[in-house]
Specification:
alpha/beta; seven-stranded parallel β-sheet; Short-subunit dehydrogenase; SDR_fam
């Protein structure tokens, strides 16, 4: 969608979500922003209002299905949503001694259930209006399971495939669906990594790439291209060739 006027962005208190909120903020635009850190979210909302946008901000855990449904219902009633960006996510890995069941379940709850909790409360209204766009934040890590971040890779793979299937399912109803697959982007999530991050991108640059992709209703917005090409090749190779090198790769903390 080239000029959405009512936009929902989850995970808007930092990282890519914050950068997208600031990029879309303009007079005549209504932004509905949510994130877990109320202080950071308030700061982002203030900057978006200064750019001329009308902003509704609420600190909500996207894994809370009922709270998300209530909030999204009120947002859509006030300003019918054109674009929803299911961006909220979290990451952790095995670098500090393995991935516990609790950690794995929390990552899946935020990254996967949180995506569903963002999309489904709005789908009936989008369908009734016969227009709108959904953007799902996956990752290049969703193309191949990496020993350093099992639950994160699994969640992002599920989001990617779900979004690709949803695009075809909703195409005849006038609703666009795009899957976003970033590589390494500077954020609080990547700041804890203790290993080299090839082709690390600035957050603002990533947001601009995403906006351009959404404006043309791209099926997949994957970047940066050298990293995307490497990951696609890795996914095509048989595990017999890739398991060994991946086992020796650095682990995410």
């Amino acid at each position: 969608m080239k000029q959405p006027r009512s936009i929902v962005i989850t995970g808007a208190s930092s990282g890519i979500g914050e950068a997208l909120a600031l990029l879309y903020a303009a007079p005549g635009v209504a932004l509905a922003l949510t994130g877990r850190d109320s202080a950071r979210l308030a700061a982002v909302a203030s900057r978006c209002r200064a750019a001329g946008a009308a902003v509704e901000a609420a600190a909500i855990d996207v894994a809370d299905r009922e709270a998300m449904a209530r909030w999204l219902g009120s947002v859509d009633a006030a300003a019918p949503v054109d674009l929803v960006i299911a961006n909220a996510g979290m990451s952790a890995g095995t670098g500090d001694g393995g991935e516990s069941e609790e950690q794995a379940r929390r990552i899946l709850a935020v990254n996967l259930d949180g995506t569903l909790n963002t999309i489904h409360p709005l789908l009936p209204a989008l369908r009734a209006r016969g227009r709108g766009q959904i953007a799902l934040m996956a990752s290049l890590a969703g193309f191949r399971g990496l020993p350093g971040a099992p639950a994160y890779c699994a969640a992002k793979a599920a989001v990617r495939v779900y979004g690709e299937a949803l695009r075809g399912d909703l195409a005849g109803e006038g609703i666009g669906v795009s899957v976003i697959c970033p590589g390494f982007v500077k954020s609080r999530m990547t700041a804890v990594n203790r290993f080299p991050m090839p082709f690390l991108m600035e957050t603002d640059a990533a947001a601009r790439v995403i906006r351009r992709g959404l404006a043309r209703n791209a099926a997949r917005v994957a970047f940066p291209w050298p990293m995307a090409a490497a990951v696609w090749l890795l996914a095509l190779l048989p595990p017999a060739l890739t398991d060994g090198p991946l086992r020796r790769a650095p682990r995410k903390p």
